[in-house]
Amino acid sequence: MLAVAMSSKPLPSENAFLVQLGEEVDPTLERFTGRVEHVESGLRARFDSRDELFALLARMLAQRGGARDPKPQREDR
Protein backbone atom coordinates (compact mmCIF):
# COMPACT_ATOMS: atom_id res chain seq x y z
CA MET A 1 0.00 0.00 0.00
CA LEU A 2 1.28 3.47 -0.90
CA ALA A 3 1.26 6.10 1.78
CA VAL A 4 0.59 9.69 0.78
CA ALA A 5 2.63 12.29 2.63
CA MET A 6 1.05 15.72 2.78
CA SER A 7 3.17 18.78 3.40
CA SER A 8 1.99 22.21 4.42
CA LYS A 9 4.55 23.64 2.00
CA PRO A 10 3.26 23.88 -1.60
CA LEU A 11 5.13 22.06 -4.34
CA PRO A 12 6.69 24.36 -6.98
CA SER A 13 4.97 24.17 -10.36
CA GLU A 14 8.33 24.50 -12.16
CA ASN A 15 9.13 21.00 -10.86
CA ALA A 16 5.98 19.42 -12.34
CA PHE A 17 6.32 16.57 -14.84
CA LEU A 18 3.89 14.39 -16.75
CA VAL A 19 5.06 10.80 -17.17
CA GLN A 20 3.25 8.57 -19.65
CA LEU A 21 4.14 4.89 -19.55
CA GLY A 22 4.02 2.63 -22.61
CA GLU A 23 1.78 -0.42 -22.95
CA GLU A 24 4.61 -2.90 -22.47
CA VAL A 25 5.77 -1.54 -19.10
CA ASP A 26 6.70 -4.31 -16.68
CA PRO A 27 9.01 -3.11 -13.91
CA THR A 28 9.65 -6.68 -12.78
CA LEU A 29 11.03 -7.56 -16.22
CA GLU A 30 12.96 -4.30 -16.66
CA ARG A 31 10.66 -3.12 -19.48
CA PHE A 32 10.08 0.54 -18.71
CA THR A 33 9.28 2.79 -21.66
CA GLY A 34 7.31 5.95 -22.21
CA ARG A 35 7.47 9.70 -22.41
CA VAL A 36 8.16 12.49 -19.92
CA GLU A 37 7.12 16.12 -20.31
CA HIS A 38 8.21 19.10 -18.22
CA VAL A 39 4.86 20.85 -17.69
CA GLU A 40 6.13 24.43 -17.47
CA SER A 41 8.48 24.39 -20.50
CA GLY A 42 6.74 21.82 -22.67
CA LEU A 43 10.00 19.91 -23.24
CA ARG A 44 9.29 16.25 -23.99
CA ALA A 45 11.43 13.20 -24.46
CA ARG A 46 10.99 9.45 -24.71
CA PHE A 47 12.72 6.98 -22.42
CA ASP A 48 13.44 3.25 -22.64
CA SER A 49 14.47 2.49 -19.05
CA ARG A 50 14.01 3.71 -15.48
CA ASP A 51 17.57 5.03 -15.53
CA GLU A 52 16.90 7.01 -18.69
CA LEU A 53 13.70 8.46 -17.17
CA PHE A 54 15.59 9.72 -14.11
CA ALA A 55 18.39 11.09 -16.29
CA LEU A 56 15.84 13.01 -18.38
CA LEU A 57 14.20 14.44 -15.25
CA ALA A 58 17.60 15.62 -14.00
CA ARG A 59 18.47 17.17 -17.39
CA MET A 60 15.16 18.98 -17.65
CA LEU A 61 15.55 20.38 -14.14
CA ALA A 62 19.11 21.47 -14.97
CA GLN A 63 17.87 23.27 -18.08
CA ARG A 64 15.55 25.26 -15.87
CA GLY A 65 18.64 26.63 -14.14
CA GLY A 66 20.14 27.84 -17.43
CA ALA A 67 22.31 24.85 -18.40
CA ARG A 68 21.40 23.81 -21.93
CA ASP A 69 21.60 20.17 -22.95
CA PRO A 70 20.27 19.36 -26.44
CA LYS A 71 18.87 15.93 -25.47
CA PRO A 72 15.31 16.72 -24.25
CA GLN A 73 13.48 18.35 -27.14
CA ARG A 74 9.96 19.17 -28.07
CA GLU A 75 8.28 16.09 -29.42
CA ASP A 76 5.87 16.44 -32.34
CA ARG A 77 3.59 13.62 -31.25
What can you see in these coordinates?
This protein has 77 residues and is an alpha+beta fold. It has a domain at 15-64. 19% of the residues lie in helices and 18% in strands. The chain has one helix spanning 50-64, and strands spanning 17-21, 34-38, 44-47. Strands 1-2-3 form a three-stranded antiparallel beta sheet, with helices on one face. The chain starts with 16 loop residues before the first strand and ends in a 13-residue tail after the last helix. Mean pLDDT is 80; it is low at 66-70.
What's the short story on this structure?
19% of the residues lie in helices and 18% in strands.
Major β-sheet strand ordering: 1-2-3
CA-CA gap between termini: 34 Å
Portion in strands: 15-25%
* Mean pLDDT over the full residue set: 80
Number of helices: 1
Order of helices and strands: EEEH
Backbone shape: globular
Structural class: alpha+beta
- What is the strand tally? 3
Compute the gyration radius: what is it?
A: 14 Å
Described by strand count, sense and barrel closure, the largest sheet is: 3 strands, antiparallel
Low-confidence stretches: 66-70
| Helical fraction | 10-25%
List keywords for this structure.
alpha+beta, 77 residues, three-stranded antiparallel β-sheet
Protein topology:
Layout: E1 17-21, E2 34-38, E3 44-47, H1 50-64
Antiparallel strand pairs: 1-2, 2-3
